[in-house]
Amino acid sequence: MMSAALQVRPTTESMYSHHAHEVARWAERLAGPGFDVEDIVHEVFTIAYERAHKFRGDCSLRTWLFGITKKVVQHRRRKERWWRWLSGSADETAGHLASDSPDPLRTVEQNQAAAEVYGVLDRLSERDRQVLILCELEGLDAEEAGHLLGIRQANVRLRLHRARARFAHAYQEFVNRSSQRRSP
Length: 184
Prior knowledge:
By secondary structure, this protein is mainly α. It is built from nine helices and no strands.
């Protein structure tokens, strides 16, 4: 006779086929530009496969995978900050190298806008980043975001309200600094 915990354990095939796209989207949004999303997704599913026997079914598989994704991204972002601090930014170390990809104006503008948004997001706490990314970029409602973050809907709304205010303040500071750098 199988226990209930064994019955809810996902198979590795179904886990990847049903959730890979969503994990990739989370990874891309949580990490921001400059991170290898495929590599993050690979690490998330490697961890999930290794720990699948520990999945008890206390939460949904989606919530469990989001938690792993969140931790992998946090680790990568922390590691990247240390790497930049120790060796300089990617622009400083390889900014002079030519790109193989085409460079149309629209792509530049989109990348610049994304860099500005993630530049401001980088100034916020991980809690603020996560709730803004889930609700604003992913378009999740408070119930879905609360389920993924493991908090109540009311707390999601409160965090989102406060995170929006902090984002607006940080964005204004970013704009002010940018305009000061441009003026002679």
